[in-house]
Specification:
single chain, 377 residues, alpha/beta, eight-stranded parallel barrel, binds ligand G3I
Amino acid sequence: MKVRRLTTVGAALAVTVLIGGTAASAVPNGAQFRPPADSLRALAQPTGLRIGTAVIPFDLDTDGYVQLVGDQFSVVTPGNEMKWQVVEPTQGSYDWTAADRLVSFAQAHGQLVRGHTLTWHNQLPNWLTAGVADGSISNDQLKSLLHKHIVDEMTHFKGKIWQWDVANEFFTDSNPSQINPNDFWVSHLGAGILGDVFRWAHAADPKALLFYNDYNIAGEDGTNAKSDAVYAWVKSQLAAGVPINGIGDQGHLDTQYGYPYSLQSNLQRFANLHLKVAITEADVRTFVTDAASQVPTDHLAEFAQPYEFEQMLKACLAVQACISFTFWGFGDADSWVPGFFKGEGYATIYDVNLNPKPVIQVLQQELRLAARAAPVR
Ligand code: G3I
């Protein structure tokens, strides 16, 4: 219990030293930014949990937005700007502008960075997918290009990224689940490519924490099939010496399905493999009147949305290896949900005008309580 009586300064130090053992290198100069005492990031600090958000670097020009990013969060993820399509729109010509801007912002505000994402079937550059489709890029060349992409991107950001999502969304949603044989990468290079990308990533930046990231892998689908498949796979990879450091559960919830009560035990069993875990893209969507105002249509949702966020945060807090809890954007106007799920929205913690929603107070209270009782990470 002595550990809970750490002073604020001591706790801050503990956070820097303890998380993944790499935080010091990921925050050059240890920024002196002081967030408000009732901010999510400050309230989480005694537990060592980093509270994060996906950021749209372009929006850092907007006053209300930029203030919230700096004040409320201690880790940031570029929502799109480290994806291959954005960083290498033309073959051989890199554009790091947006991602660099976010990394600089993070360093100035005492924040860590989650790199997202190096190997994914989606948001690939047109020159790559077109070349594969017309046969001008062979499978051998494709493998070399992926290796180069990982090495070049990780080298560019070397020492500045705390956690990298090295591989994203490779498993099927079926029951039983498996590595998707139709996935772009797997269909061309075989399932072994998953081990290769982690080996390449470790060689490129040995201090970064290397994550496998996916949705529905902590029981959100109600069957646990995908979680079981990822668990079996990661266990086999670790036994084979593949350098995987963590599992990211995206945490996209929907009030119509209820809260997945197995989420904590699923995080814990990954942790029991000596892995870090993280909630990487938390949001809780519900049916809304319209995409512009995003007012819930069901009164129960006004309770369910904060409740499910709170339970998910509580699950992460309870698992000592859960080192970060990242929201997939913090304002409803920027959320991916209305564009992807017809009729749904209200998925974030601030409304469409960036006013705080009731969920914020619930999360603040949860963090205050956790400061007394949650395991320190
Ligand atoms: O940048 C173009 C813009 O020029 C154009 O006018 C506009 C018209 O549609 O599109 C813009 O690109 C959009 C891009 O986001 C940037 O806003 C794409 O259409 C849109 O498809 C893309 O969506 C992103 C989505 O990944 C793609 O799958 C979301 O912003 C992003 O939040 C989302 O993030 C993913 C994670 O990476 C992985 N897990 C699931 C998560 C949610 O889908």
